[in-house]
Amino acid sequence: MKTTDDAWRREPLTWAAIAIALLLWASAFAGIRAGLESYGPGQVALLRFATASAVFFVYASITRMRPPDPRDIPRIALAGLLGITTYHVALNFGEVTVTAGAASLIISASPIITALLSVLLIGERLSVAGWIGIVVSFLGVVLISVGEGGHLAFEPRAALVFLAATGTALYFVVAKRPLRRYSAVQFTAYAVWAGTLPMLVFAPGLISQMATATPAATWAVLYMGVFPGAVAYALWSYALARMPASVLSTFIYFQPVNAIIIAWVWLGEVPSLLALVGGTVSLVGVAIVNTRGRGRPEPVVAPVTDE
After folding, report:
1. Does the residue 307 lie in any domain?
2. Domains in the chain: how many in total?
3. What angle, 0 to 180 degrees and rounded to 10, lies between the N-to-C axes of helices 254-267 and 128-147?
4. What is the reported pTM?
5. Which residues contact 187 (CB under 8 A, 6 or more apart)?
6. Short-list 50, 187, 180, 193, CA closest to 122
7. pLDDT tens digit string along 30-44?
8. CA 200 to CA 281: how far, in whole Å?
């Protein structure tokens, strides 16, 4: 069965998957802060994705999910290593000392890296307007960081945050091919299991820390495993199977805007005028990419469903 790269524009479920995934990931920032009060960075990552792995194991048992083809295991394992292990471990350790403003700017380089890799490795195409849109969105994040008083000092651990941004960009690209052969839930389960295995090096510390951790910290990390972990990654894979990685990655620029809105409504933190301008600029950039950013569409294989 054939479709076009632009068919996703007419699929409400794709848009819903993106929106819910972004909201769940936005909620993870508070969960990470709560978890780090009782756990180390590596232990937070392990407990979160051990929980996500358990969720997928229950799903796989109930649905009798088929195992991956042995030929696909190396690519799936690489995706898990990049998008789960590398991204979350490097980001958690990096944010121990890297300021929030600097970290947000570095992570916001991920869509740029994704677009470059998508062009070089899987033949996706962005128009000139698409590249302009990505740059505009990045500049919007710069304005948000400055407007929110973000301290933009970059110290050695900033390299870990950049490693995380590169890891998630590579994950988007590597995942495209397996998502033509497996459903979103199947692929995400395999990738999460593969990405959790290397984190077992943090297991001894996790066992000792759980004995003294506060219930609030433990429940926060468990929540991240179920929702920003298992559910959000499966939804993102659903969208990734249906649209170009270079376009989907630009929706990450919604995250700083989400953070502003949540802080405004929930905590009463009134954003600065510069931050509001930056949020608007970021959204304009995303709109440019999604309306004018694609080059000539190419036929692609329809994604696998869970049916």
Report:
1. no
2. 1
3. 30
4. 0.84
5. 76, 79, 175, 178, 179, 237
6. 180
7. 788 789 899 999 999
8. 41
